Amino acid sequence: MSAVPELVQQLEGFVELIAAAIESRDWDDLNDLLVNRQETLERLCALSLSPLERKAVVNMMASMQATDRQLLALVQSQKEVLQKQAASLAHDRKAIRAYQAE
């Protein structure tokens, strides 16, 4: 029995978990999920694939890349929000120090 369908299913299952980690801003969980997904992908690529399995894996990887682009855009937008919040906090701290120095 081939392990290919099981590994493909595992890889497809990572999509929702990764999206949920990004949505909840759980960066540690996101990192763990990406490491686990990479390990699963490496196990899949190490297998000997039939031509039909190879085609299915190539299609799955293309879909994964498209989804990753969407998820990366979401991470980038959240990064921008966090950068703005950090800049605002730094500005507020500077104002408080200036006020306390008077």
* Amount of helix: over 70%
Q: Approximately how much beta-strand content do the residues carry? A: under 5%
Biggest β-sheet description: none
What spatial form do the alpha-carbon principal axes imply?
A: rod-shaped
Multimeric state: single chain
Structural class: mainly alpha
Name the poorly predicted regions.
Answer: none
Rounded to the nearest angstrom, the distance between the terminal CA atoms is 76 Å
The mean pLDDT is: 92
Using DSSP, what is the number of strands?
A: 0
SSE pattern, N- to C-terminal: HHH
The tally of helices reads: 3
What is the alpha-carbon Rg in Å? 21 Å
Description:
- There is one protein chain.
- This protein has 102 residues and is mainly alpha-helical.
- The protein has a domain at 4-74.
- Helix content is 88%, strand content 0%.
- It has helices spanning 4-23, 27-45, 51-101.
- Helix 1 (4-23) runs parallel beside helix 3 (51-101).
- The N and C termini lie far apart (76 Å).
- The mean pLDDT is 92.
